[in-house]
Write a structure and sequence with these properties.
about 30% strand; alpha+beta
Length: about 120
């Protein structure tokens, strides 16, 4: 059961990141440490050179609950982006996010990047 849930959650992560990549909102790298994961570099669709934040996205077994959780480590690249979107980041980092909520949060993040960049112009 746990292995199939892990596989399902990894597939969900891959699907969400593929959608974002197709929108040219993220570039994807492999995690570089022993914990693995994928790094999503968040940027404007028209400029991959201007990265606002990097999200290390891992899936991890939580033994106490025997669930597979989505774990995010967020690195701010642009001063102010994470601060301007603090509540969205907190919501993204909550444990036991379900498919619909994860998709909604990443869609909200796409809107946030557009709004933030427009406010800087």
């Amino acid at each position: 059961m746990i292995f199939s849930d892990y596989s399902h959650q990894c597939s969900l992560r891959k699907k969400i990141l593929k959608k974002l990549k197709n929108k040219n909102i993220v570039t994807i790298e492999n995690g570089q440490d022993e914990r693995g994961g994928l790094i999503a570099c968040l940027h404007l669709s028209k400029s991959a050179d201007k990265v606002y934040a990097k999200f290390l996205w891992r899936t991890q077994l939580t033994p106490r609950t025997e669930t597979i959780d989505h774990i995010f480590t967020i690195e701010e690249i642009d001063d102010g982006f994470l601060e301007a979107n603090r509540q969205l980041m907190k919501n993204l980092c909550k444990k036991t996010q379900k498919k619909d909520k994860l998709e909604e949060l990443w869609n909200n993040l796409c809107v946030a990047i557009d709004e933030y960049s427009a406010s800087k112009e």
